[in-house]
Amino acid sequence: MTKRFRRSPVSAERTLILVKPDGVSRGLVGEVVGRIERKGLKIVALELRTLERSVAETHYGEHASKPFFGELVEFITSGPLVALVVEGPRAVEALRGLIGATDPVKAAPGSLRGDFALEIGQNLIHGSDSPESAKREIDLFFPGLS
């Protein structure tokens, strides 16, 4: 008797990735894009831009009452960044693993932050932390795309 196994269909999910100003200035955009594509995920939107303060404050609004909020907004608006929308099965989870822990000291070797980030305040990259956050963030950076 032969058993046939079918892969359960997994619908594509989208997530937002930001290569922060430190990653852009250090020439790491190609490395980030390459790793995303080698993971088998698809880039469906990409834009190089300098973030407006109002967009940064909205994006990081959950941190508004924290002492590092001002520095975070200053840093993310300090120079160009690359915003990407990435699509694939379980894209949020896949990218969180590829990115690594927020603190580069705790990020696993082989993750983007583990390999390239210098400090927690300049940790190279942002990735949505949930499908709900991804939708909200994509709507903010790429209106009408999510």
UniProtKB/TrEMBL annotation:
<feature type="binding site">
    <location>
        <position position="96"/>
    </location>
    <ligand>
        <name>ATP</name>
    </ligand>
</feature>
<dbReference type="InterPro" id="IPR023005">
    <property type="entry name" value="Nucleoside_diP_kinase_AS"/>
</dbReference>
<protein>
    <recommendedName>
        <fullName>Nucleoside diphosphate kinase</fullName>
        <ecNumber>2.7.4.6</ecNumber>
    </recommendedName>
</protein>
<feature type="active site" description="Pros-phosphohistidine intermediate">
    <location>
        <position position="126"/>
    </location>
</feature>
<dbReference type="GO" id="GO:0006241">
    <property type="term" value="P:CTP biosynthetic process"/>
</dbReference>
<dbReference type="InterPro" id="IPR001564">
    <property type="entry name" value="Nucleoside_diP_kinase"/>
</dbReference>
<dbReference type="GO" id="GO:0046872">
    <property type="term" value="F:metal ion binding"/>
</dbReference>
<keyword id="KW-0546">Nucleotide metabolism</keyword>
<feature type="binding site">
    <location>
        <position position="113"/>
    </location>
    <ligand>
        <name>ATP</name>
    </ligand>
</feature>
<feature type="binding site">
    <location>
        <position position="102"/>
    </location>
    <ligand>
        <name>ATP</name>
    </ligand>
</feature>
<feature type="binding site">
    <location>
        <position position="123"/>
    </location>
    <ligand>
        <name>ATP</name>
    </ligand>
</feature>
<keyword id="KW-0963">Cytoplasm</keyword>
<keyword id="KW-0479">Metal-binding</keyword>
<dbReference type="GO" id="GO:0004550">
    <property type="term" value="F:nucleoside diphosphate kinase activity"/>
</dbReference>
<dbReference type="GO" id="GO:0005737">
    <property type="term" value="C:cytoplasm"/>
</dbReference>
<keyword id="KW-0460">Magnesium</keyword>
<dbReference type="GO" id="GO:0005524">
    <property type="term" value="F:ATP binding"/>
</dbReference>
<feature type="binding site">
    <location>
        <position position="68"/>
    </location>
    <ligand>
        <name>ATP</name>
    </ligand>
</feature>
<dbReference type="Pfam" id="PF00334">
    <property type="entry name" value="NDK"/>
</dbReference>
<comment type="similarity">
    <text>Belongs to the NDK family.</text>
</comment>
<keyword id="KW-0418">Kinase</keyword>
<feature type="binding site">
    <location>
        <position position="20"/>
    </location>
    <ligand>
        <name>ATP</name>
    </ligand>
</feature>
<dbReference type="GO" id="GO:0006183">
    <property type="term" value="P:GTP biosynthetic process"/>
</dbReference>
<dbReference type="InterPro" id="IPR034907">
    <property type="entry name" value="NDK-like_dom"/>
</dbReference>
<dbReference type="InterPro" id="IPR036850">
    <property type="entry name" value="NDK-like_dom_sf"/>
</dbReference>
<keyword id="KW-0597">Phosphoprotein</keyword>
<keyword id="KW-0067">ATP-binding</keyword>
<comment type="subunit">
    <text>Homotetramer.</text>
</comment>
<comment type="function">
    <text>Major role in the synthesis of nucleoside triphosphates other than ATP. The ATP gamma phosphate is transferred to the NDP beta phosphate via a ping-pong mechanism, using a phosphorylated active-site intermediate.</text>
</comment>
<feature type="domain" description="Nucleoside diphosphate kinase-like">
    <location>
        <begin position="12"/>
        <end position="146"/>
    </location>
</feature>
<dbReference type="GO" id="GO:0006228">
    <property type="term" value="P:UTP biosynthetic process"/>
</dbReference>
<keyword id="KW-0547">Nucleotide-binding</keyword>
<keyword id="KW-0808">Transferase</keyword>
